[in-house]
Design brief:
The protein contains 10 helices and 5 strands. The protein has 250 residues and is α/β, with parallel strands linked by helices. It has 2 domains: 150 residues, 3-Layer(aba) Sandwich (Rossmann fold); 83 residues, no CATH class. It binds iron/sulfur cluster (3 copies). The site of one iron/sulfur cluster has 13 residues, from helix 1 and helix 4.
Length: 250
């Protein structure tokens, strides 16, 4: 990789909230631009580039045409980073996979225009379901500070490490009142930390917007549910929001 890596950003099916986090970096953006050569980013600049050292991918894959475009980007990129939960797991876009009939989904959204050809869609796939992903940046949206830190590390040729322990760890260090004690359901025991347990620290239960740790402690989750007389069925709604693997509840 050259001293100043060529960096490009691409988006697929998403709300673009993660790239807005980047566009809103304010003074941090100047520091980053000193480290990388920004060659393509539809949200903030015009122009395209034929190849990139690092390609950041936002959004999920929901159409055959997306798949082909993503594979082309993969072929042009040395490092491919899936950023934001839409890209990492499919995120909230995967809610549509709860329906087996994709035309039914189209009708729910587009009503009498549902049959239009360009609305063709298939069940949501994460970026890693289609191409090799070298690194993930979790979150819905991503955390700006984490993003800046990761880009700096990549620019220096380092391999960033994403936290792989549960949100409960960060939450307990902050001595928060547990949301279960307030009668809520919280996915903190299996959710991937790194956000500083921002939701429970502000009186809101965790929905695992950063996905789960790579080896979720199912027993700990079951013990928490048993302690508060809750059943697995009662957490399924939470698990579905960010496409957490339903296996963690079994
Ligand atoms: S991960 Fe969340 S904030 Fe980011 S693009 Fe997807 S829906 Fe938007
Ligand atoms: S279950 Fe939720 S609120 Fe309770 S300690 Fe864990 S993260 Fe915090
Ligand atoms: S506490 Fe949970 S839902 Fe909130 S930002 Fe962190 S991982 Fe996401």
């Amino acid at each position: 990789m050259s001293a100043k890596p060529k960096v490009a950003f691409f988006d697929f099916a998403c709300c673009e909230g993660c790239q807005l986090q980047i566009a809103n970096l304010e003074e941090d953006i100047l520091g980053l631009l000193g480290l990388v050569d920004l060659v393509e980013f539809r949200e903030v600049m015009t122009g395209t580039a034929p190849e990139y050292d690092i390609a950041f991918i936002e959004g999920s894959i929901t159409r055959k045409a997306d798949e082909e475009r993503l594979k082309d980007i993969r072929n042009r990129a040395k490092i491919l980073v899936a950023y934001g939960q839409c890209a990492v797991t499919g995120g909230i876009n995967k809610l549509k996979n709860l329906h087996s009939d994709m035309m039914e989904v189209r009708k729910i959204v587009y009503k009498d225009k549902a049959a239009m050809e360009h609305l063709d869609t298939y069940p949501t796939r994460a970026v890693g379901d289609v191409v090799k992903v070298d690194l993930i940046i979790p979150g819905c949206p991503i955390n700006k500070d984490e993003f800046v830190s990761i880009v700096k590390q990549l620019a220096l040729g380092k391999i960033p490490r994403i936290p792989d322990y549960p949100v409960c760890v960060e939450c307990k260090l902050k001595e928060n009142v547990c949301r279960y004690d307030e009668g809520e359901i919280c996915l903190g025991p299996i959710a991937r930390a790194g956000c500083g347990a921002i939701c429970p620290s502000n009186g809101v239960a965790c929905d695992a917007c950063r996905g789960t740790v790579s080896n979720p402690n199912k027993q700990a989750m079951h013990e928490v549910l048993a302690k508060y007389n809750l059943t697995v069925d009662e957490i399924i709604g939470k698990i579905n929001i960010f496409a957490v693997d339903p296996e963690v509840s079994k």
